[in-house]
Amino acid sequence: MKSLSDALLYGILDLGYTPAADIERVAEQMFAGGVDILQLRAKDQDETEIEALCNRLIPLTEAAGVPLIINDFPQLVPSIGAQGAHVGQDDFAVSDARWRAGRALAGEVPLPIIGKSTHSFDQAVAAEKEGADYIGFGPLFATPTKPGRPAIGLEDIARVHSVVKTPIFCIGGIKLENLDAIIAAGARRVVIVSGLLQAPDIAAYAREAKTRLSRNAASRN
User: Fold this and answer.
1) What is the DSSP string of the chain?
2) pLDDT at residue 47 tops 70
């Protein structure tokens, strides 16, 4: 399984862009392009439906060695065998999410990964103190994925990386067209949603993004 510390490109399989019938095909294209982490986001589905979707994805993620992260439902992690869950500012505390995600498997498997959304420098610092394994930082740009959420821009990217040592994935309106500017502003890891899922060739799009992120990572070593 790919490690969180080595991950550069985080893909979200969002059912707002991908029909449920296509999740296997899209996931395989994302893996072919080098996506390091896969999150399932299914905002309009109930818990039973999300569990069924994850059970379809888990054989693919395991074969690809890519961690599967469940959005908003940490309690599903043990039964599915996913690697973790992602929570927002208004969802569970990190400690609560981790307990829900790992209570049935304590001592049997690695502790579940818990990611936290943050929308400011102060929230990012707080999420690290709270024990988040990784942080989503954004939205950098306005995005239909998060309607009504104001963009935070690029100004704090370098600052947050200088203070927060937990892996930071910049998110929100990121596409190949602006990726170079985001990297130049200090980003090391990114989440791409609509740009990736709406690409004519998902694997090629992911591969190009991963190449740019890997080149940046190599230049830092």
Assistant:
1) ---GGG--EEEEEETTTS-GGGHHHHHHHHHHTT--EEEEE-TTS-HHHHHHHHHHHHHHHHHHT--EEEES-GGGHHHHT-SEEEE-TTS--HHHHHHHHHGGGTTTSPPPEEEEEE-SHHHHHHHHHHT-SEEEE--SS--TTSTTPPP--STTHHHHHHH--S-EEE-SS--HHHHHHHHHTT--EEEE-HHHHT-SSHHHHHHHHHHHHHHHHHHH-
2) yes
